[in-house]
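fyi for ur records
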Amino acid sequence: MDRSAVILAGGFSSRFGQDKGLIELAGKPLVRYVLDAIKNIVDEKLVIVSSEDQAKKYSEIFDSSLKIFVDKNKVQTPLVGALTGFREAKGQYTLLLPCDTPFMSKEILSLLFEICIGKNAVIPRWPNGYIEPLQAVYCTKPALDAAEKALADASFNMRSLVDRLRGVRYVSTMVLQQLDPELRTFFNVNTPLDLKKAEFMLKHKKR
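which gave:
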């Protein structure tokens, strides 16, 4: 097995009052849009949740091809979810994704996999230096080691993982604009207003 995808769905949105990945956009859970984007480009799909109750809800909605794992660490951060994902992933390379990005570009995700060969990670980077570690491809074993070291040092953000990796390739968002001119792939639904924006963007996309 070569390619895995790990979707982080452990966060509970206080702004929505419910599991963000299951919030519906045009009648479809947000996480379903992410799953559709990775269809046919990965060998396995994993969703990381933060409780058994969450795991039950996901298992009732999705078929058995979706592997669901519960974080064991009480600290709820993307890094902890990433560590669980890297530990359970069977692929040599793992695509790490959030659950709330409904316009993810399949072309960009495929490109990240293609240019990760021989690297420990490929991470999109904005012109201001900001990186997108939650829409990136990692070589699974080195990333797991880096995540474990970061947590052992009580560092809980994704940058702590990236800083402990050698052989990281950064790809400019200006390059990615050739595949996704408006970079909608990075649009997150964090608030009810974002959901309204996403509804508008979806309608506009269908025209």
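The two ends are 38 Å apart (CA to CA). thats all i got for now
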